Amino acid sequence: MTRVALVNADPVDREQLRGYLDRFSGESGERFRVRVFEDGDQIIQNYRAEFDIIFMDIQLGFVDGITAAQEIRKMDGQVIIIFFSSLDACAVMGYQVGALDFLLKPTAYAAFSRAMGRALDRLWRRRHRYIYVANKSGVLRLDCARIRYIEVDGRDLVYHTEDGDLTGPGTLREVEDSLTESPFFRCGKGCLVNLEHVDGLENGDALVHGATVQVSRSKKKAFLDAFNRCLNEAWA
Question: Is 107 found in the same domain as 34?
């Protein structure tokens, strides 16, 4: 069951999106649980990370879609955001808050279906990636989607995750080799960052849930390219 939020003030748009979801469900077999919000303030008030995908209009009443998405990103770095708007000039702003896609009104079903395919592919890959880390209590399985970044600390590695920090032995090269199918980027000699947790960029460095992860000068262009590929779902 995929949990979807529709944030849209226009009842015609909401009906269209519901119809598209029903059609996509019939074609793919994917089941959806849908919740509707008529304004940005409704979804950010008492927000909980309970959705897999949010379809967000930009032109809303009290709180616009970009502002709502910025607030959501402070609390939830994983939810997939797809903007749905007639304002194509706002597409760049949408990608700055980590939007997966931007659907321009009027939206054809084919464009909607492609966006849903990319979103579900990202969800599937998040749910099926694990690595194993040894520590004093044994061996723990870590969900790669919950790892924000990994850094070297002496002879150990520190895994910064959504559930807290974990330290274990190993080398960054070994971990990097095991994550070749995942959206991790080697920022320099001592750090791997999960591009799906990058909230934005500042002077070429990565902003990850309030932490600044430094990107070496020689890696900055490659990092930006990799980050853009991640946003556009170009990972194999």
Answer: yes
End residue of a domain, out of 57, 91, 126: 126
Handedness of CA 12, 15, 20, 23 (dihedral sign): negative
- The H-or-E segment that residue 27 falls in is helix 11-28
Task: Decide which of 95, 126, 157 is a domain's last residue.
Answer: 126
Per-residue pLDDT of the chain (236 residues; tens, 9 = 90+): 899 999 999 999 999 999 999 999 999 999 999 999 999 999 999 898 889 999 999 888 888 888 999 999 888 888 999 998 887 655 556 567 778 888 988 899 999 999 999 999 888 777 667 888 987 778 888 888 889 999 999 989 999 998 899 999 989 999 988 887 678 999 988 999 999 889 888 888 899 988 999 999 999 899 988 887 776 543 33
Tell me whether residue 236 is in a domain. no
| Bridge pairing between strands 2-7 and 32-37 | parallel
Residue 114's CATH number: 3.40.50.2300
CB neighbourhood size of 114 (10 A): 13
